[in-house]
Design a protein that fits this description.
The chain has a 7-stranded mixed sheet with strand order 3-2-1-4-6-5-7, with helices on both faces. It starts with 5 loop residues before the first strand and ends with a helix. The protein has a single domain, classed as Spore Coat Polysaccharide Biosynthesis Protein SpsA, Chain A (Alpha-Beta Complex), CATH 3.90.550.10. The chain has 226 residues and is of the alpha/beta class. The protein is built from 8 helices and 7 strands.
């Protein structure tokens, strides 16, 4: 039996003020929101760099690939996301990685800096038994998507900014021929309320004697406490 060729894709937007975390920016301002996005990106890169698979940052905008290169620092390959909505860009990424030899593809974003790496590793393992793996997000979407050597028919006609992304995705997944695995729910951080959830979670982990593993994000939290 040949060795598996799993792929971990991190979908990330370059943290430029006014173009990231716009809902958070409505409360804290675009510059601060960009600092948060940058911290999330750096923490997510650090956390995922230890996963022993082919690691790729799917970056946007395409012209920011040069900005990503020193931040990625050789730990991930880089692939521009290209045009289209999120569904089109995810489908394009999966198609390209399968064509390059990947037989298991897991996608995550940079909006969940505290996401346990174990969830990613479990998703990669689940693809041995399922055709699609989903990690439900508490905002109605999903924080993780995984699949095998077929691109699932779940990317068209989705309102990616809505609260029904997960349900709409499931509605597009045929009942026959597509086995589904589901991970535990986790949270994204997109709004000021989400930021407070993250603050409480990080504080609770520290109080329990655990390292949250989000050094850049914690530095921002400490700034706010001064």
């Amino acid at each position: 039996m040949s060795a598996r060729t799993p792929v971990l894709g991190l979908f990330a937007k370059w943290p430029r003020a006014g173009q990231v975390k716009t809902r958070l920016a409505d409360v804290v301002g675009p510059e601060r929101a960009a600092q948060v996005a940058r911290a999330f990106l750096l923490d997510t890169l650090d956390r995922l760099a230890a996963v022993p698979v082919r690691r790729v940052v799917a970056c946007t905008p395409d012209e920011a690939e040069g900005d990503f290169a020193p931040v990625v620092s050789g730990r991930f390959a880089l692939r521009p996301q290209g045009d289209g909505d999120l569904g089109a860009r995810m489908a394009r990424f999966i198609t390209a990685e399968i064509a390059a030899g990947g037989d298991a593809v897991v996608l995550v974003g940079a909006d969940s800096p505290t996401l346990p790496v174990e969830y990613v590793e479990r998703a990669l393992a689940e693809i041995d038994r399922a055709d699609v793996v989903l990690g439900p997000a508490t905002d109605g979407g999903y924080y993780l998507l995984g699949c095998g050597r077929r691109v699932p028919p779940i990317f068209d006609g989705i309102d990616w900014g809505g609260h029904h992304v997960l349900g709409d995705t499931l509605a597009r997944l045929p009942a026959k021929g597509w086995r589904l695995a589901v991970l535990e729910p986790w949270y994204d951080v997109d709004t000021a309320e989400d930021w407070q959830v993250l603050r409480g979670h990080v504080a609770a982990l520290r109080r329990a004697g655990l390292d949250p593993g989000v050094a850049f994000t914690e530095a921002l939290l400490r700034e706010e406490d001064r």
